[in-house]
Amino acid sequence: MIDLKVLTQAVGDLDEKTILTMINDFVATNPSGEDAQKVVFACQQGMAIVGELFETNEYYVGDLIFAGELLSKTIDLLKPVLSGVASQKIGSIVIGTVQGDLHDIGKNIFGSMAEAAGFDVYDLGIDVSPSAFVEKVKEVKPQIIGMSGVLTLAIDSMKNTVKALNEAGLRNSVKIIIGGNPVNEDACKQIGADDFTTNAAEGLKTCQGWVK
Amino acid sequence: MINESKAHEIGVSFLNNYKVVFQPGDVLVEVAEGRTLKEVINDAGLEFDFLCGGRGTCGKCRVKIAEGLTMPVTREQEMLQVKELEEGIRLACLTTVHNDLIVELPNQKTLQHNILIASDERAFQIEPHLHKVLVEVDKPSRETQSSDYRRLKESLVQQGYKDLELESTISVLRQMPDVLRGANNRITAVMYESKVAGIEPEDSTETMLGMAFDIGTTTIVGYLLDLYSGKELSVVSTLNPQTTFGADVISRLTFAGHEENGLTKLQGAVVGAINKLIAEAAEKASVASSQIYGVSIAANTCMHHIFLGINPQSIAVSPYVPALSEPLVLDASELAISINRAGKVFMLPNIAGFVGADTVAVLLATELDRSEDIKLVIDIGTNGEIALGSREKIVACSAAAGPAFEGAQISSGMRGAAGAIDHVYYRDKLEYSVIGGGKPLGVCGSALLDAVAGLVELGILNKRGKFLAFDQLTNPAARRFKENLIQYEGQGAFLLAEGDITGHCRPIMITQSDIRELQMAKGAMAAGVKVLMETYGIQAQDIKEVLLAGAFGNYLNPHSACVIGLIPLELESKIKMIGNAAGTGSKLALLSSNEFCRAKDIAEAVKFVELGSYPRFNSIFGECTYFNLH
To answer: Residue B385 forms beta bridges with which residues?
Structure first.
């Protein structure tokens, strides 16, 4: 059996070689869905270490991007042995970079950290129109919407998205968090979001607080 | 006064007016309650540099309230030190007026910038856009009853112009009868293609001058040239006065789109500056501005649009297309440019929303379109434009480096002006040089590069950009700088100058978050270079030359740039500084109609790569934020 503690530490250390070797070896043993779930959990704990190291300034953006990619690679490898297992999700989030903006580094980091933390994450990608947000919210009924943007003008798009959610009568069914370079308390109020963040790890904590 | 009437208009006449006096200079302004000092400074036309555009994010617009001090707002408390707050230091963009004030503005000397005007030149053929033709027009006669215009055209036909193609403007026709008679029918026609753009009495063919401009987001440089010889008669430069409305392109875009008459204000500011420079250049060279017949403009896309009064909003949102990229020839009078009334303005073409005519000018100056070798051309700024290519093909992109290289968002950062530490040397002890030689006031981009490169080489920063604790250092050379290694806000930092030797009594240092800002900035630039190499299908070693254009590129130490990974390490020996190449390109386009046409070909041939939608961009960027010495 795979040593989960070693795996968690390897994820925390961003040791790609060790992680991929361990996961490949594990999948080759044709494990049960239950065991695979434990491996996912160990990876999630490793991501929590990454988050902590980011907060203490040990890690930086490059590491978060790398960690996110590493995690999706790992989950992809595990998918065949995970099928049929009902996963325990702590909540669901719809995320996207708002209309007119293409920057998605922050959004992607947040997405992979949220996924690692046990959220169902629906990522709408970049340049997402207000109506696309509304449609997805109608479809998957998430608890949280995360809007991201780097350009100052993203603020306008965020405002329009909240307006569209209001008009569709969906605003009160979700919590909204905005993230990215131009957001601050004023922007948050102006937009009508519930909270804001310029830091993926901090944003995740806010979301975890909302679904408790 | 404007404020007062505004207050009445909106029915808030109960608001009080206060007196604000700015020092030095005793500038008195009457101000309605609640206005920010930034608004007051701008309305009063005082020169002041708002690095972040006055959004309260950079903490750099420090002013001293000498009288009438009120409580700081929360953000000021966050961004200023307790000692500063006690001394009456406030941020102009966050301080609102609620009583009479005396405000001390920072020494104007610090606002004088080092503006790069020198550049490499290259050989080319002068082919003026405009021609002056001396014509002896026949006297009117009873026999033929031929009109003034008819006779003028006939004289021009004798000079080789085709009768049917000849055109004229109404203003020329209006002048014609008087000019002809006043000069006894001996006149000089100013021709643009087959158009009579102007007529002047007697023979004025001896002189024809022009001015080439490079309009940057921060600075504007103008070169007064003799259009016959190509000789440079004078060079003038100024800070772009739009800086008052925001330091970078994005804040200008925001201003143009969100403020009332924002676009008009921005356009007015730049046209005003251009006219001032024209007058100044003419005076310097002892010529009249009416002897100037052509003006060429190389600017980034946003500056280009604003200069023309075209709304630049489309640049700001995906897919970031410009309103206009084609080259233009316009009448100077239409744009209110004060040169000869027959004068033309030549607008170089743009490539994309964030790769503008200034980049086209750089490519024209460097002749990348005819180069046998593959070259990398980089113009480092808030938006770094990068082009890679040869005569086979050229690819280009714009990397959003942010303002770190220009000193914004760096704790001790400032632009490359007097008082800025511009280079740092790790010798037996730490040494540095200061622009202007006085006491240091901060670090500019080139010093930030040197400082961080040294920290990387000494192993004081790890690969991830984290400051190591002193006992973790393995390089013995690093131990020499023990006293420079300090703690700031719970993080490691590197002290460059103690408070007792600086011009403002605050220590100058490089903090952990400064390192982070630099990692983002250099990561964006380096990722741009990588993406272009991938798109082109080459490796770093295939690049024969790296040409650094622009002010920052000219002052940086190539070794430092390579150590921090801004430029691939293996290219260090191939780096060449080419100065203000955008200015050179602008000159070429003004002096030669062939070169102006070539600029169009270049703009059309360059393949623009949008980094935001490049598939692997994020992971390439992530990798590029590291410090990898090996």
So the answer is: B379, B398
- Whether A108 and A58 map to the same domain: the answer is no
Testing the interface with A: which of B302, B318, B511, B621 to mutate, by most A Cβ within 10 A? B318
Chain mean position to CA B554: 14
What residue ranges define each of the domains in chain B, with the CATH number in brackets? Answer: 2-106 (3.10.20.30), 130-201 (3.10.20.880), 209-347 (3.30.420.480), 367-403+531-624 (3.30.420), 404-518 (no CATH)
* Interatomic CA distance for residues B161 and B128, integer angstroms: 16
Q: Closest Cα partner for A12 from A73, A71, A62, A72?
A: A71
**Other CB atoms closer than 10 Å to residue B123's CB: what's the count?**
5
CB nearest to A103's CB, from B253, B254, B612: B612
Q: Does B250 touch chain A (CB under 8 A)?
A: yes
Give all strands of the β-sheet with B430-434 in edge-to-edge order. B430-434, B420-426, B442-443
Q: Do residues A177 and A206 share a domain?
A: yes
Pick from A154, A153, A135: nearest CA to A145: A135
Contact list, A102 vs chain B (CB under 8 Å): 318, 610, 612-613
Angle, alpha carbons B84-B36-B98 (nearest 5°): 85
Output the six-digit token pair for B19: 């007196």
The answer to whether B367 and B383 are in contact (CB under 8 A) is no
Tokens for A114?
Answer: 């949220």
Residue B610 touches chain A, beta carbons under 8 Å: yes
ipTM: 0.81
For residue B356, with 0-12 CB atoms within 10 Å meaning exposed, 13-18 middle and 19 or more buried, which class applies? buried
Considering A64, A82, A100, which residue would you say is the last residue of a domain?
A82
Helix axes B445-457, B512-536, angle to 10 degrees: 90
Q: pLDDT tens digits for A36-86?
A: 888 988 998 898 899 889 888 899 989 989 998 898 889 889 888 887 666
Structure tokens that stand for B326 in this block: 């084609």
Q: Is residue B627 within 8 angstroms of chain A, CB to CB?
A: no
H-type helices in B107-248, by residue range? 148-158, 170-182
Beta carbons within 10 angstroms of residue A168's beta carbon? 16
Of A57, A61, A153, which has the smallest distance from its Cβ to B254's Cβ? A153
Peptide bond into B349 cis (omega under 30): no
Q: For chain B (length 630 residues), average pLDDT per consecutive 10? A: 41 66 81 85 75 73 85 82 83 87 70 58 87 93 92 94 92 94 94 94 94 93 95 94 86 88 96 97 96 97 97 89 96 96 96 96 96 95 90 95 82 90 95 93 95 96 94 92 93 95 93 94 96 97 94 90 95 94 96 96 96 90 89
Q: Provide φ and ψ at B105, rounded to 5°.
A: -90, 150
Q: How far is CA B135 from CA B190, B397, B403, in A?
A: 11, 50, 55
Residue in B316, B318, B519 nearest the CB of A60? B519
Distance CA B179, CA B181 (A): 6
How far apart are alpha carbons B122 and B364 in whole angstroms? 10
User: A73 is in which domain, residue-wise?
Assistant: 4-82
Query: Exposed, middle or buried, B610 (CB in 10 Å: 0-12/13-18/19+)?
Result: middle
Chain A residue with the nearest C-alpha to that of B612: A102
The domain that contains A135 carries what CATH number? 3.40.50.280
Q: Please, what is the Cα angle at A25 between A20 and A31, to 5 degrees?
A: 120
Structure tokens at A64: 């978060």
- Cβ contacts of B569 within 8 Å, gap of 6 or more: B562, B563, B629
Q: Report which of A202, A211, A183 is spatially closest to residue A109, judged by C-alpha positions.
A: A202
Cα-based torsion angle of the residue sequence B32, B33, B35, B37 in order, rounded to the nearest 10 degrees: 100
